[in-house]
Design brief:
It contains seven helices and no strands. With about 260 residues, the chain is an all-alpha fold.
C-alpha cells in the first residue's frame, strides 16, 4: 500500500471512531447521509442542496457557540449555573465537529478512490515492464546482452541474442591474474615518466624559455671610510621614507584601494 493511501485510510478510521464514540454517548445528533447507489446520492442537485443545508446549520451552530463563549467570558456566576453553560458549550462544539467530519469524510472518500486508482496504475505498469524485460538469470554473462560502445555511446551489437546464440565472435579470457595484481596496487595513479623526461618533453614543445639578456652588475658596496657616500646613501633612504609617508600605497588609485 502506498504511503498516501495508508495515511488516508488511517485518517478515515479516526473519523469513524470519533463518530462512533459520539453515537454511543448520545451527545450529538449526526446528520443522515443517503446510502450509496440510491437516486438521492447520485443526483448532483440533491447533493448540492444537502451541502447548502449543512452549511446553514454549521453557521447557525457557530453563532450559538460564539454567544455561549461571550456568556462565559462575562463570568456571570451570580445569574446562572456556569457548569450548565459549560456543558452546553461542549455539546454544541461537538455537534459542530460532527457536521464538519461528515463533510470531510465525503472528500476523504473521493481522494481515497483516486489514491487507490493511482496505486493500481503503478502496479500494472511495473508488471508490464517486468513481463516485457527478458530474463537473464540463467545466462552466464548477462552484461554481454546490453553492451555500450564507448566511442559512439550507443548500444553495440550484442554478443548473444535472446535465445543465447552467439551473434559475433568473442574470446574467453582469464581475469584471475589481473584481479590478483590489482589487490596490492596503490589507490592512486602512478607516474608514467620522470621529472627530467617531463621537462625534456616540455622543452621540445617550446614551453620552456632558456637564455635571456645580460644579468645586471651587482651593486658595489660602500666603503666605511667614504663618509660622503655614506651620507648620500642615508639621505637617499630618508627621502624614500618621506616619499612613502606622503604617498601611501594605493593613494593614486581613483576609487580603488587606499590602505
Amino acid at each position: 500500500m502506498d504511503g498516501r493511501t495508508a495515511i488516508l485510510e488511517e485518517a478515515k478510521a479516526h473519523y469513524k471512531q470519533f463518530l462512533s464514540t459520539c453515537r454511543d454517548l448520545g451527545i450529538a445528533n449526526q446528520p443522515e447521509q443517503p446510502a450509496e447507489g440510491t437516486a438521492a446520492s447520485q443526483n448532483p442537485g440533491h447533493s448540492r442542496m444537502q451541502k447548502l443545508e449543512r452549511f446553514k446549520q454549521q453557521r447557525a451552530m457557530q453563532q450559538e457557540i460564539d454567544e455561549i463563549e461571550a456568556r462565559l467570558a462575562r463570568d456571570s456566576a451570580d445569574d446562572e449555573d456556569m457548569e450548565e453553560v459549560e456543558r452546553e458549550y461542549a455539546v454544541k462544539l461537538i455537534e459542530l465537529k460532527v457536521h464538519q467530519v461528515q463533510d470531510d469524510l465525503s472528500l476523504l472518500d473521493s481522494e481515497l478512490d483516486m489514491a487507490r486508482q493511482m496505486d493500481e496504475m503503478r502496479k500494472s505498469a511495473v508488471q508490464q515492464q517486468d513481463s516485457r524485460a527478458p530474463s537473464t538469470e540463467w545466462r552466464l554473462d548477462p552484461h554481454s546482452y546490453a553492451q555500450i560502445n564507448p566511442q559512439t555511446g550507443r548500444a553495440a551489437r550484442p554478443t548473444f541474442n535472446d535465445r543465447g546464440q552467439p551473434m559475433q565472435p568473442f574470446v574467453l579470457t582469464n581475469k584471475r591474474q589481473q584481479i590478483k595484481d590489482n589487490v596490492f596496487r596503490p589507490g592512486w595513479a602512478l607516474p608514467t615518466m620522470s621529472v627530467d623526461e617531463y621537462l625534456e618533453q616540455e622543452r621540445e614543445r617550446g614551453n620552456i624559455i632558456s637564455g635571456g639578456g645580460k644579468e645586471p652588475d651587482p651593486k658595489p658596496e660602500i666603503d666605511d671610510n667614504d663618509y660622503e657616500a655614506l651620507d648620500a646613501e642615508v639621505m637617499k633612504q630618508r627621502e624614500w621614507d618621506d616619499f612613502t609617508d606622503n604617498n601611501p600605497r594605493g593613494a593614486g588609485n581613483r576609487g580603488g584601494n587606499r590602505g
